Amino acid sequence: MVHECVGQIACLASDIGFNIDNLRDGFWQLSIDGLSWGAIYALVAVGYTLVFGVLRLINFAHSEIFMLGMFGAYFCLDMILGFSPSGNAYNKGVLLTVLYLGIAMVFAMLVSGTAAIGLEAVAYRPLRRRNARPLTFLITAIGMSFVLQEFVHFVLPKIIKGYGGSNAQQPIILVQPKTQFQIFGATVSNVTIVIVVAALLLAALTDIAINRTKFGRGIRAVAQDPTTATLMGVSRERIIMTTFLIGGLLAGAAALLYSLKVPQGIIYSGGFLLGIKAFSAAVLGGIGNLRGALLGGLLLGIMENYGQAVFGTQWRDVVAFVLLVLVLLIRPTGILGESLGKARA
Amino acid sequence: MTHQATPGTPGKVTGTLLAPGDRLRNWWSGLSRVQKWGFGVLGFALLALSPLFPPPFFDTPGISFGGTMAQFAMVAIIAIGLNVVVGQAGLLDLGYVGFYAVGAYTVALLTSPDSPWNQVGETGAFSEPWAWLACVPLAMAATALAGLILGIPTLRLRGDYLAIVTLGFGEIIRLLADNLSDITNGSRGLNKVAYPHVGESDHLRDGVFSSGNSSGHANYGTWWFWLGLVLMIGILLLVGNLERSRAGRAWVAIREDEDAAEVMGVNTFRFKLWAFVIGAAIGGLSGALYAGQVQYVAPPTFNIINSMLFLCAVVLGGQGNKLGVIFGAFVIVYLPNRMLGVHVLGINLGDLKYLFFGLALVVLMIFRPQGLFPVRQQLLTYGKRARYLLRSADDSKSAA
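The joint structure predicted for all components is written out below.
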């Protein structure tokens, strides 16, 4: 009996694996790859964090907003810009590629932004009018998540031929990953550069919008104290709509960047896991805190890559979830602490 | 956001449209205890006989009616268990399928020849005919333990965080089952799980519960349905008694206002943990049933979307009402099976189950957040007498 137990633990060990050398050898490469994942998580996480900050609601359907953004980006590249999914990469030169990417990104952002506003208007606004309990909101969010996923799964193929359905879209490879330069022995590809630069730019823009503009002040005011904000002449409904819009726009941008990184990942169920991870990132940084979400996203992307190197590729998702649980246990308010409202006035 | 728990007041039209349960419930709560038992026994007897004489329109054309009902019994047990956690204690558990998986995998790991921990056979601890039954309490114990391990760190968290952590847990369990391939056989799954060997005869060599018994109305699905029904009644009695006990009152107090409950001297953490562990064990029981019936356990069954479906059953039926959630479970299982193969506009309606259930959740949350058969807030002690007093007071007021 004792012998068997030893064998069983060995069994477990062989499946889980623990290889710290992997991490040491590939440290910089892992960090840089993780950074590009983290940039995507960060953009999606902003959507969770803003909505949570303003409404105290986990917008469970945000992952589906992201998923719709992926389809939007694909639709733009395929139908509007005319790139057919041929399997080979299009090499159009830097300027033209950036232009096309920009157009696709704007389109994806429009799709996601519209979807986010629509989601708010259809599902959440009636609940707010009825003063529903928090649990009710969460269940509605889950329901909408189902609806949007299954819409793309079964109904979209009937509307636009070749879209949606059970299989992923044929990949359109606009940018062929190519090494641009090396840093500490780690290679940096053009895809990584595009993702990180675009994400940082958008993150900076969002930060300015929230912290320095008039409607940003409105958002922070509503997050801090909805009643007083209303008394001061801030329209709560409009602020909530703006919040959903910003979250949706960023999710759309993230969706395009994601489809650059994983062109074969455009599928109806593709948002779910990423959404949970982005939410974990938001919690990691401190939910309700904008900069926390950005920091949390980057950290989660990098940590996940380290964990994957140590424990094996198949444990990647487990690493993210375990990290989430650990953060909640050790520091439930996240690294930078929660609250959108307590930021500077 | 205000945290006032004002249940939505449905408009008159939607109220009557979505509330077929109200009159039924009023009638039911007006019955005496003996009458309730009488109707209950009658109802369960009719339910038990239904697979033998499937009513013509009610039958499921694409799939064996007995099998559908067996599935219903399993989901109903899950719904009762989840109802303890979500409906009674007010803890949103999105990873309940994880417990279902732990239960199923406990049975499969202990009895499948594909597993390294197989205990059936020459050297094993179990004799083959009784292996399944012996594993059921083990499966429940293992799931209860899993609930305890998950609950101790997470139940101190805020409600919405709890939802996400449990979601992560459900996904981790599935990923473990998928990736620990030396033990769980990975995505190939575990075959030949044990089942009760009862009623063996010449033409049914492996007894009525084996998948060999597949013809006629009394096929193995029907037998599993009967077994599930017996277990369901047992669980119902257990949960019903818990509801009326100190633990049940503590759960209601926690659900309605955790801080107030704490102030009144309820050890909220301990009772939340109890709810979690009891709910987990019931989920494990259902998992064991599943493993026995299908005789094959593989990771895709325990996809997180099933967790949402279970939650849908509870919300649809009415959180906190154990008979309501059984109805919810029936809807969740029966409708997709009934719609299987029914085509509208080139779309198989059976495929659209998640779309419909998602829509149902959204609409229900707006117009009737308490579910079709909402739980009645009643005094748990002296309930009936107090209600009569209140009713007579109301009558005299309206007369005046």
